[in-house]
Amino acid sequence: MNRVFRFIFSMSCLGMFAQNANQELAHKILGNRDFNYVQNRALEVIKTGFNAGDGYREVWIRDYNTFIELASKTYPAAELKENLLVFFRMQGDDGNIIDGFTPADKISKEETDFSYSPLEPRYAGHKNTVETDQETSLIQTVYKYVKTTGDRSILKVNVGDKTVTERMEWALQFLLNHRFSEKYGLIWGATTADWGDVQPEHGWGVDLNQNSHRAIDIYDNAMLIIALDNLIDMLPETKAKWNPIREELARNSMKYLWDPKAQKFIPHIYLEGSPFPKDFNEDKIYYFGGTAIAIEAGLLSRHEVKASLDEMVSRVKLAGAASIGLTLYPPYPAGFFKNKIMNPEYNYQNGGDWTWFGARMISQLVKYGFIKEAYEQLQPMTDRVVQNKGFYEWYTVDNKPEGSGTFRGSAGVLYDAISLLDRWAEQHK
Question: Which residues belong to any copy of the Glycosyl hydrolase 94 catalytic domain (predicted)?
Answer without folding.
Answer: 40-313
